[in-house]
Amino acid sequence: MSQAEVSRMKPPLVPLATLIGRELRNEKVEKPFVKFGQAALAKKGEDYFLVKSDCQRIPGNPATSFSVFAIFDGHNGISAAIFVKENLLGNILNAIPQRISREEWLQALPRALVAGFVKTDIEFQQRGETSGTTVTFVVIDGWTVTVASVGDSRCILDDTQGGVVSLLTVDHRLEENVEERERVTASGGEVGRLNVFGGNEVGPLRCWPGGLCLSRSIGDTDVGEFIVPIPHVKQVKLSNAGGRLIIASDGIWDALSSDMAAKSCRGLPADLAAKLVVKEALRSRGLKDDTTCLVVDIIPSDQPVLPPTPRKKQNALSSFLFGKISQNSTNKTTNKLSAVGVVEELFEEGSAMLAERLGKDFPMSANSGIFKCAVCQIDQPPAEGITANSGPFFSPASKPWEGPFLCNKCRKKKDAMEGKRPSRPTVAT
Ligand SMILES: [Zn+2]
């Protein structure tokens, strides 16, 4: 008697939930659909956003598709936000090695995001303009979501299955972030409030010189270089039940908590959800700032929309499991957690130290003896560049040939960000 005939004779012994679980754990589950909606209300006209749902890891191969969603909230003008919108994605992709597998590509992404943010900042500085921008940059490849951010825009994840709302960015407002205040002070900046009316302090904490409320941004050439463009990066893998991302500028988050924003639009399709979040923020606070919201649903391909309400009984399990599993994206043991309704954390790093973020690799191009700068990706013979660890500011004990390899220009930027040379390049304004 065949196996099939045996199973036909007996009632099923495996509970349905287990079968579904097994099916969902199967690595061959199809890529999800990505559906999005956008809504915005302008007060100053300094918010910009980017939606690219048709990117390809290998150009010409639709099976390697991924999507990008980003928000840029400009200040002191719009040129930084526009420049970053136009150049950042290219700079990031340029920092990812060619001809690698999907898994390797996802592992290379956090480092490429750091290189791309820093390169874009250096390029913008060279234009001699003083505006700046926050960046919240989201890459979705299959069930894996990677978020890089500087500033105070925010990306939240509403894990539909578990009903858990979690933050994928950190807040780089000096007022909210004590670690960043300490870093800025240690790098030569001053942090304090504005002094008016005979010494009364008003408003949020700002850094001086410059008076910016943020500790990280792209641009802001007129502010000390301790305001760095190095992003906080977080990479998670959704369960095969999918989830919803809400990416928005501070106009939303000054009015709504993450939970309020998520709950205000559950059960609605993404385009309506984005409109409703903006409306909800406006209702509670009025239009005080530019307000931009992107809602991105990552949906199983056999399901047309996200389920309207989360399954409450999974809350406890999901909250418990959504913890720090690994700081290392290469850790394979996290795979065993890909059960129903559980978000795996694959990678998280927020250090403002460039060398820590780029790793120690010494990528040498095909031509022997030519190194590639880990930030700007320009090939150079070693004599013309030095490693991040060389120079007069390091103790003799440090290894001068330990990576990452940086060209002269990028090494100067690194030193400036760490307060090791007078901030600010010469700006022709
Ligand atoms: Zn370089």
End-to-end gap: 86 Å
- Strand portion: 25-35%
CATH-defined topology of the largest domain: Phosphatase 2c, domain 1
Question: How many helices?
Answer: 11
Structural class: alpha+beta
- What is the average of the pLDDT values? 83
- Note the overall shape: globular
- Fraction in helix: 25-40%
**Number of DSSP E strands:** 18
List SSEs in N-to-C order. HHEEEHHEEEEHEEEEEHHHEHEHEEEEH
What does this structure look like?
By secondary structure, the chain is of the alpha+beta class. The chain has two domains: 30-172 and 228-352, Phosphatase 2c, domain 1; 358-424, no CATH class. 27% of the residues lie in helices and 26% in strands. The chain has eleven helices and 18 strands. The chain has helices at residues 3-9, 16-25, 79-94, 102-125, 178-186, 250-253, 258-264, 270-285, 315-321, 354-358, 408-417, and strands spanning 33-41, 47-56, 65-75, 132-141, 144-150, 154-159, 164-167, 190-196, 200-208, 218-219, 232-237, 243-248, 291-299, 344-349, 371-372, 379-380, 385-387, 405-407. Strands 2, 3, 4, 5, 10, 11 and 14 form a seven-stranded antiparallel sheet that branches. A hairpin with an 8-residue loop joins β2 (47-56) and β3 (65-75). α3 (79-94) runs antiparallel to α4 (102-125). The radius of gyration is 23 Å and the shape is globular. It starts with a helix and ends in a 12-residue tail after the last helix. The model is unreliable at 311-340, 392-398 and 425-429 (pLDDT under 50). The structure holds zinc ion. Residues 28-298 form the PPM-type phosphatase domain. This is protein-serine/threonine phosphatase. Its cofactor is Mn(2+); Mg(2+). Its EC number is 3.1.3.16. GO terms for molecular function: metal ion binding; protein serine/threonine phosphatase activity.
